[in-house]
Amino acid sequence: MSGCGCGCGCETSQTNQTIETSATDSRDYLVAGMTCQPCATRVSAAVTAVPGITGVTVDLAAGRITVTGAASDGDIRSAVTDAGYQISTS
After folding, report:
1. What is the pTM (predicted TM-score) of this model?
2. For a surface tag, which of 21, 44, 65, 90 has the fewest beta carbons within 10 Å of its beta carbon?
3. Residues whose CB is less than 8 angstroms from the CB of residue 20 and which lie 6 or more positions away in sequence, other chains included
4. Tens of pLDDT, residues 25-61
């Protein structure tokens, strides 16, 4: 069986991805639908593009992201939903 079901054509894998520069404020979120590495990369890129974000850690197996930076909760949520995923506070 191949693919995660999100339509990206990948092989399902569970890895962690971290993009960090400096820490100020850290928050955790659950991301529904993030099932493969391309999904994790898409979510990470969307959140990293939010002004004020200094780091994003993705735990694919747990479906969780940890966001570091001074961006608003609303901006983070919008970035994830605009990327095609559902987000909630963990």
Report:
1. 0.77
2. 21
3. 54, 55, 56, 57, 68
4. 899 999 999 999 999 999 999 999 999 999 999 999 9
